[in-house]
């Protein structure tokens, strides 16, 4: 019933502008049209007066009423004027202007009041007959719209539109003011503006009151929408899946919403580059069924909805949906706002990006948070084909594979996070970026993760000993960074960690890369699969690097302080004692002794570690390049039972990169460029002070007799190597 009412009203509105036929005077045409409406089975029509002013070439109708009592609908126009009417023999006509006021349309539960409507330079071509089919209400409406979009006008305005809807005695009111449309031709509207808009629900004392300062739109192609909704526009009943521009822009500005206890404000909402397309199967029949029987059984509604869901969703695409300047003002929250929220390239095929920027939240005495940006993107959604397969599986009662429902995530990004609490003065995170690609089921075969600028104040660390140690080293904060880049290839099931890095700014870092064969893709997420595959996993290559920035020096400075020794002297002597320390470490550990001494590793290890300790900013790299893949089971066995074979088994090498030695030339410069020539002679005692410390008279901080270094079962070329390290003339 409601659908028939809508169609009847649409028919009345469409015929009203056609107030004259080619050969009839405008007065006769109006009488004829009113009589035709009155003669229809469902409608009655009348008017109070009709007059024509030949000076202005204007015909005016007053108190027009068209009523359908059985449908509960009515169209009333207090005054309608047509100026400059010119008809043609083919039924087309033009009018210089059409002005109407006092319009009221009643449609069941809703009433629409229209004030001060005006259309300029209206042209209505000859239109085809539109036959209303009671069994196809939606399709019939679309047929009417297909003819209506053939009209054109230069400008149209509506002073106000008030929509009042009453549902279960609850009234809601929407008011549109100052609506203007410019340049409509060939089914396309160049621009639209309106505002302000107001919404009250319930009315008049609404619990929710919404105001919109203005609305603007451009590039609205109604013909493109008709092409999607009209089933007869589908070639042989099949959609072409070709995207067409639908709406360039729709934007709402200065939105305010008031609710009990709070207020929401939005600077703007914009929808850009809306496109539409014909899906493979037209869905007008589904909308016909809904209009005919809106209260159909839920089971039937669900079945019809699922069947046509792919087409309904697949016919739309949005270039961007954005919200700017959002803020909430409610009791108990000092600040809740964000500067922008955007979704880009949205369709049933996927989503390019969902992002929020400038997010701020604060509750006095509890926490404060600011997030510069959070985004996820490159999310595939399967398209119409994927939705169709899913619907078919649901309709058949088959079990749904969860992997078919889970969209892949192309990237995740978080930038500039700052958190404050009563216990933490400031916790900062500069950036997190996760990129995943080339999914197989739920798992990506290529991924990278970056974490940088995770800054934690030292006094926020809960472990008392760790906090005390960091404070003693002089670290006021911990600045952590992490990077991981991985790839997996099906051939040989090879997992490659291209780059794995941990870093603590101004302290040191750790880097690693390796490749493992026989590693199933899902093993990292499935412990049972990992255990099953472990016996056939092999190490192909590996590299580990340790980098020092200051942590080694700070640790040695602390030891020097405890021993009441000069830090630089202590560090040098500690480095010279590395051979002794390594040898002593193996005394009570046979496995370590076999790995370091019996394998021949010690001569390579000593100079690298000595430089690492002696020179700030140095690094150590251990590289494994086995001649053939080494099974992880065999590697574990070698570590436990034959550590001396590990060097050859892995092709293990150790290298080091010394840091840049800073001789501190700046401190010597003043003596060289002293302005007084006699200065060196006057400060001779200071120059002689170092020489007074005769090396023979200076007591070493760490005393290590060479003969006390235990070297058990070492190769023949090693005894001279290790002692030589302690006697180096450094």
What does this structure look like?
The chain has 730 residues and is of the alpha+beta class. Among the domains are: 1-96, no CATH class; 128-331, no CATH class; 537-659, no CATH class. The protein has 21 helices and 28 strands. The protein has a 28-stranded antiparallel sheet that branches. A hairpin with a 6-residue loop joins strand 11 and strand 12. The radius of gyration is 41 Å and the shape is elongated.
Brief synopsis:
The chain is α+β, with helices and mostly antiparallel strands and 730 residues long. Helices cover 28% and strands 42% of the residues. The chain has a 28-stranded antiparallel beta sheet that branches.
Counted by DSSP, the helix tally is 21
Structural class by secondary-structure content? alpha+beta
Would you tell me the overall average pLDDT? 83
> In angstroms, what is the radius of gyration?
41 Å
The geometry reads as elongated
Termini Cα gap: 102 Å
Strand content: 35-45%
**Low-confidence parts:** 1-24, 678-730
Keywords:
single chain, 730 residues, alpha+beta, 28-stranded antiparallel sheet, 28% helix, 42% strand, elongated, disordered N terminus, disordered C terminus
List the helices and strands and how they pair.
Blueprint: H1 2-15, H2 26-39, E1 44-46, E2 49-53, E3 58-68, E4 73-83, E5 86-87, E6 93-107, E7 110-124, H3 137-148, E8 153-167, E9 170-185, E10 188-194, E11 197-201, E12 208-221, H4 222-229, E13 244-259, E14 262-276, H5 284-292, H6 298-314, E15 316-330, E16 335-347, E17 350-363, E18 367-380, H7 383-396, H8 402-405, E19 411-420, E20 427-440, E21 443-457, H9 464-472, E22 477-489, E23 494-504, E24 508-517, H10 527-533, E25 538-548, H11 551-562, H12 567-576, H13 578-586, H14 590-598, H15 602-614, E26 619-624, E27 630-631, H16 632-641, H17 646-650, E28 652-657, H18 665-672, H19 679-682, H20 684-692, H21 721-726
Antiparallel strand pairs: 1-3, 2-3, 3-4, 4-6, 5-6, 6-7, 7-8, 8-9, 9-10, 9-11, 10-12, 11-12, 12-13, 13-14, 14-15, 15-16, 16-17, 17-18, 18-19, 19-20, 20-21, 21-22, 22-23, 23-24, 24-25, 25-26, 25-27, 26-28
Protein name: AsmA-like C-terminal region
Region (Disordered): 669-730
Signal peptide: 1-22
